[in-house]
């Protein structure tokens, strides 16, 4: 009897413990050892599970939690304009790339100045901006991701072999600083636009928030001590009211090409009827007004014969047209 009991104890000690994979996973519910949690939320091995968008495990692709135009988030989360997954206004609001986007940012909870992320010398894998080019001669899209299709090299392309518009003008001289507009409307809630300036000599970013870092004063800066945009040209001629008979036939739009009746022109230059096109920051369906101060955008168009540049100023030549 003693020998039988000892034998049972030995078998119990030697028996291995198995971890069963549940099939589904997420960033907070990992897979069994040796498996990867794919961007779609399933466990497995190989490039489809451990490659780009992998959320956990022995990932070999992009950083977990990142996303892009062709890499949606798991769990019905929003992909923010900076390429990260989440479900708050910072992810689902302005610039949201996919997921349950709302198209309008939540008002700041404080009157303190909004600050952006600190720039780094290198960007995460597959990310880019106006000062960080892509590897392999790829295009940097308007949303800050590298690729070689029309979504990356077309409208809004920041650098690389762009096909949809001119690159930002370069200069060998010292970068000029934009002058502060003469408007008396001063922001009191941290938000701004072409007609509402920031307090304390802060910059108004292209997304409509006040701050003093490169994200606010660089590319797309609307007013304040901007470093990334040219001064608007001066003109002694009286602007004439242009006709708005140039109606879009290909789904794209801008200050000089309106959408068909009932559609809105989004801040990214496309026609549609959902909140992403008609929500905050977009042109809507309000009849446009003609610029009188050299600035354009947000339903303000340039005088006849002039183009509205990606920086929001009216003028002639490749830098504007």
Automatic annotation (TrEMBL):
Disulfide bonds: 31-43, 36-50, 73-85, 78-92, 134-146, 139-153, 198-210, 203-217, 259-271, 264-278
Start and end residues of each Chitin-binding type-1 domain: 22-61, 64-103, 125-164, 189-228, 250-309
Keywords of the record: Chitin-binding, Disulfide bond, Signal
Signal peptide region: 1-21
PROSITE patterns: CHIT_BIND_I_1 (PS00026), CHIT_BIND_I_2 (PS50941)
GO molecular function, one term: chitin binding
A Pfam cross-reference name: Chitin_bind_1
Protein name stated in the entry: Chitin-binding type-1 domain-containing protein
Protein source organism: Tieghemiomyces parasiticus
